[in-house]
């Protein structure tokens, strides 16, 4: 569906945030519960490590649906911001916060929305989650499944150690980063282009759209730099019926920029949230709320091929 396109609008502490989806085929009954579930995974205020901003995140579809079924026309939707506190940021009107986009937005536009980061806020990913939920529904009908899980937080992988680390950061007004592991299964061979639109390049671009993302690798990634060719190659067997079987998947399902039919797996690194200090209106860690965003961005990448 290479005509699929999402345009988003809105700022963190303005009236609403939303998007317009173009290129979605007609006749799809939208799974509203799937959208609600994904938004709940992204929502703030659910855990001690997340921002305590509490939004209802109710999606209002303005066009493109009839009785919950897509018409093939642009799908416009919005989510109203009901727990925005722009006054909390008044002291930042003339201050550039470290590692935020305050200065760069000012340098580019000559003006910036100081209310919670405006367009640079992680809340701007909400429309991607809505569109991603619809894309995942379409892809599931083709047998394509996308999942993302927390791989580590602050270098820790054990739940108890992670819990203790998050509690420590919260008590000290600090933050911590982590890694999300993503997987795409059921992809056919042949998606992607040899040069400008390599599948993994498009996937990486989508992941780097997410605020706080600092690194991306697919397959065995950086570990392959320490391998020999005999270790990194993925041997191929051609069966009598002409089907192809790979004996390993160090390549992560992509070779020459084109999918080979194997699982596409990847890791996304998130930096510590730059907002630190006492208070409960910011995240201690972007994870695990980021897992559903990684899934959405992966779905929106695949749906365009």
Structural features, described:
The chain has 7 helices and 14 strands. It has helices at 32-42, 102-109, 126-140, 159-172, 199-207, 229-232, 290-302, and strands at residues 5-10, 16-22, 59-63, 65-66, 69-70, 75-80, 145-153, 178-185, 213-218, 236-238, 244-246, 254-255, 258-259, 264-270. It has a 4-stranded antiparallel beta sheet with strand order 1-2-6-3, covered by helices on one side. It has a 4-stranded antiparallel beta sheet with strand order 7-8-14-9, with helices on one face. Helix 1 packs across helix 7 and helix 5 (199-207) packs antiparallel against helix 7 (290-302). The termini are close together. 37% of the residues are buried.
Strand order of the largest sheet: 1-2-6-3
Intertermini distance:
6 Å
Structural class: alpha+beta
User: Would you count the extended β strands for me?
Assistant: 14
Helix-strand string? EEHEEEEHHEHEHEHEEEEEH
Helix content: 10-25%
Q: How confident overall, as mean pLDDT?
A: 91
Main sheet record: 4 strands, antiparallel
Poorly predicted runs of 5 or more residues: none
Instruction: Give the radius of gyration.
Output: 21 Å
């Amino acid at each position: 569906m290479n005509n699929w396109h999402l345009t988003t609008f809105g700022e963190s502490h303005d009236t609403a945030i939303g998007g317009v989806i173009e290129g979605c085929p007609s006749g799809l009954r939208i799974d509203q519960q799937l959208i609600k579930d994904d938004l709940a995974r992204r929502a703030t205020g659910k855990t001690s490590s997340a921002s305590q901003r509490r939004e209802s995140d109710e999606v209002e579809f303005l066009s493109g649906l009839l009785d919950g079924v897509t018409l093939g026309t642009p799908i416009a939707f919005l989510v109203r911001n009901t727990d925005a506190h722009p006054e909390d940021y008044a002291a930042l009107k003339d201050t550039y916060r470290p590692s935020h986009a305050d200065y760069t937005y000012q340098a580019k536009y000559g003006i910036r929305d100081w209310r919670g980061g405006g367009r640079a806020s992680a809340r701007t990913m909400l429309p991607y989650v809505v569109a991603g939920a619809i894309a995942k529904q379409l892809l599931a009908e083709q047998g394509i499944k996308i999942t993302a899980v927390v791989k580590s937080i602050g270098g820790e992988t054990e739940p108890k150690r992670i819990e203790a680390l998050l509690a420590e950061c919260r008590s000290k007004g600090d933050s911590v980063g982590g890694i999300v592991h993503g997987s795409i299964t059921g992809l056919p061979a042949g998606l992607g282009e040899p040069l400008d639109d390599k599948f993994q390049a498009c996937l990486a671009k989508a992941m780097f759209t997410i605020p706080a993302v600092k690194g991306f690798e697919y397959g065995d990634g950086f570990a392959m730099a320490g391998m020999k060719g005999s270790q990194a190659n993925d041997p191929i067997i051609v069966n009598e019926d002409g089907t192809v079987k790979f004996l390993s998947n160090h390549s992560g399902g992509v070779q020459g920029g084109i999918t080979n039919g194997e699982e596409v797996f990847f890791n996304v690194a998130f930096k510590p949230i730059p907002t630190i200090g006492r208070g409960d209106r910011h995240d201690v860690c972007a994870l695990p709320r980021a897992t559903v965003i990684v899934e959405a961005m992966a779905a929106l990448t695949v749906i365009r091929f």
